Amino acid sequence: MTDAARGPVRERSVSAQGQDLCVFLVAGEHSGDSLGGKLMEALNKHRRGRIRYLGVGGRAMAAQGLVSQFPLEDVAVMGLGAILSRLPLLLRRISGTARSAVAAEPNAVVIIDSPEFTHPIARRIRRRRPDIPIIDYVSPSVWAWRPGRARRMRPYVDHVLGLWPFEPEVHERLGGPPCSFVGHPLIERHPWLAALDPAPLAERLGLPPGRPVLVVLPGSRTSEVSRLMQPFGQALAKLHSHGLDFEVVLPVVSSARGMIEQQLAAWPLRPHLVEGEDDKFRAFKLATAALAASGTVTLELALAGTPTVVAYKVGQLIGPIVRRMIKAPSVVLPNLVLGENVFPEFIQQDCTPANLADALAPFLGDTPERARQAAALAGMPAALQVEGLTPSEAAAGIVLDYAENGRGWPRP
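Above: the chain's sequence. Below: its structure in token form.
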């Protein structure tokens, strides 16, 4: 294959280690911007700033030197209604970003999460310039649902940077692109979490010394809160009826606080409400146990070493469809990372007050069940990182391997 303006693309395999680099990055939402900013910081340390950045990102990436094609807010939309209302703009942004990437002739392209936005861009770049390596930072959840996406990625993604230790094996089994585990970005906060002192929160809330503390997390979305507040409250009532005495702390986000306070009227006791990331993690460290909606918060609880019971419910109509689509042995991320069901999980019809109360009761005391879970959780920090490297450093090393050495050019 040749390029009339540049000659054979094979010439691009010459090492770029001694040259300034151009890296084109594409993030589609604010979490991807945060991830991209940390990646760029690590790249800058490796290359001492000898990298020019183009692409799409937000404030975190701009702080590290990115010149964004347009504001991230143009494409950082969630929900089917919001996507449909902006569809013409989104399609223009996809096409325009791909054209800009091709025109920039970068040493590498890094797409960051948001597959509905970033993958169409990657496909367009690959069709026009198959010699440019494309790295996908954050694998789509092919291990949980729609596994066929892994094989479909292979023609236009040269390498996947996985956040989870099981993803390289999954991509190999499913026929996806080469995948390397680089670690989960949350692990970079673990030293801060380990040093965080929970005592100020206990004093501020007036928690009696020695009394068990149960942290309850019914989710941050209104749909989650509406489905979980009732069974969570009834589970607490059952624990009380069994003679268990404990304090309840409920971290909230401002968007869900109103709904939570409305539904607390039916609870048997008034929990302590706290807001903000710092107090949330202080509550995790104070907690004897936690009852949580499935999601990223379960990973935060696992890193804090908090014994936890997990629950989740979706609408009755969509529930059977979701169950058929999910291929993973668990919907709880720490269980997948550790390879065993460390956190008991109660999904859909199993999410009953009786089941939740029975599972929680042993964790509110000094029991063998609590000790076993705490011992398993001690392995989480090591399981979420490549030894000796932060996730950003591990990811930067692979990106530089492609950008400097032209790995994968020309694509077979």
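The first strand starts at residue 2 and ends at 3.
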